[in-house]
């Protein structure tokens, strides 16, 4: 099943699905765009199927991949970040606790325990609070133990813009 926190493969590397959303009634997988070399048109494999990157939103480091109707998927429940509260980065390899330090309109700033930091393959992993995805991890800074995530409000606005036509 294709779902938030699951894996896909690009050029032999495991990557993480940040969310699955509906745009104009069609299912799309959302992840960070920096994992792709070319961007739009790049090929990846998820759930045994070859798919193509549909569009890149460079301003937000997001990639959208349209899912074929025959796929089994789970739509991601999005939430809003609560500042100074615990959160968790989750994927099918591990879960890493963090804290939301600051939550802006488009970015979340996260504090991690320095001995338990996300790894390069964790890019695109969902950040959860109260079981809902509040963001997708985009980058980390090892020397400060901080991370930056794209806010779920950006993903929600995509749903609104695209479904509104």
TrEMBL record:
InterPro entries given in the database record: Peptidase_S1_PA (IPR009003), Peptidase_S1_PA_chymotrypsin (IPR043504)
Domain of life: Archaea
Record SUPFAM superfamilies: Trypsin-like serine proteases
Protein name: Serine protease
Organism in which the protein naturally occurs: Methanosarcina acetivorans (strain ATCC 35395 / DSM 2834 / JCM 12185 / C2A)
Lineage start: Archaea, Methanobacteriati, Methanobacteriota, Stenosarchaea group, Methanomicrobia
